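User: I'm writing a short methods note and want a consistent example. For DNA 3'-5' helicase, I'll paste the sequence; you return only the structure tokens, no commentary, since I'll be parsing the reply automatically.
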Amino acid sequence: MLADVLTSAASWLGERSLLTYVVPEELMAELRVGQLVAVPYGERLVEGIVWTTSQDEWVELEQGEELRPIHTILDTEPALLGHQMALAQWVADYYVTPLAYVAQMMLPPGLMQRSRAVLRLAANDEQAIDAAMQGGSLQLRALLGLLLTEGTIDVERLKELLGPKRAKAILKEARENELFMQDSQLDAPKAKARVKRVVRLVSRGDALQEWCKRTEEIAQRNALPVPVPVIPDHIMQPKSTGRKGRKAVENPWAIPEAVSATATLTLSRTDKESLRAQHQLAAVDLLLHNTDPNAHWSPNALCKASGMTKAQFDQLLREHILEVVEAELRRDPLMGRTVLPSQPLSLTPDQQHALNCIVGDEYDLRPILLHGVTGSGKTEVYLQSLAAIIAQGKQGIILVPEIALTTQAVLRVAGRFPDRVAIIHSELSTGERYDEWRRIRSGEVDVVIGSRSALFAPLPNLGIIILDEEHEPAYKQSERRPTYHAREVALMLGNILNIPVVLGSATPLLIHSISPSRSTIAWLNYLAVSMLPCLRLR
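Assistant:
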């Protein structure tokens, strides 16, 4: 079995952007198109995407070439879906861009792993090591001592320590010596799930109720007295500071020493047991009343809030009332923002006609241009179109200009589809984009809203694409490669999947009014329920 793999190392190879590798027998059952794999490239390992597979066992090679096996599968879930790979191929051809650039653009930043060369000892042969320490050069002996201490050393670090020329010489000497071996490793990706140690209840039902009843009895055995300072009958007045022969005046604001003193009580064993029970009950009560699935109690936070000591917390662990587990904490872009739920509004006849043309019986497979002035209700048509698509078991993408992401547009979409919306744009942190990307890929999301990069979200069952304010120049990426226009890419993606593409605007581009364009795009110019304000110049 053979596989064509797209690697970043081959991005400038033109016609040979895909490299062919042999699929080892132990990987045949798991390997799928779109997966991230590690493959050998020269003397190092690089990351790549499985682009195609074939059952062939032979391929025509040039003289001196040989097929090498795939090293390992990095992620069993595909990083790119089939329609994404078809779209990437079109973007690469249409915009004359290396395919690897386009594929990497579709992945969240920080997902790809960097390859690095490391030097290690080939064998732990004491005699060979002693011989090298005695007969080798000073630099070779220093390298050997470093490897004996650290196990491995990064070749790039060695170049930083010794300089490029000296490092090159010592590496050459090391390769000639069979005691050393150069290997290649992939660094862990920068983007990874956020994991934290959290506390959760183990005991449930009757067992927990029985524990609570028993612990409450202990807590109520002895009510602790409130410390009250004892004021003596005779309070000594401060010494007089008046002149001799004159009677000192008492200070009415003087605070008796006994009042300012702290009363100390010695707790009995019963008192300590009562306090322990109260603290443990408070901790369990906090966990029982935690209704937010995204809120977690760490061990330290729970002890601080309930007053428990570490010993009291450990007792609950031993009794299997609580347990400490590692839980993934989602980095939510909407954290701290108030999302108010909203209900569908009644549509006007023009809005209803537009909805029918998008998701109803009047849809004729052409992209739809929804032309309506600001405030005419285009957003409500978008939302109800998305709802209709979701009812069919599909998902949708809605693109908005970057500046619109700071407005109420995102909150309005999130309020209509609570907990089923993902946000993708360039201002998110690496962790936020990674978490959103994984939610989308796993099917936890019905709607993706964002800037032009949201178009490449890995929705497994995409059913509609909406571009709001399609005339905005922000949909064109020209500042970095690959350059593309989100409107053209959206139209092609809709063509690949045979799904509706809605272009909404109050001021459509002039090109849409040209005759050939009018035949390929359904122009809906019905949303006139809102009129622009009348302006009068004086």
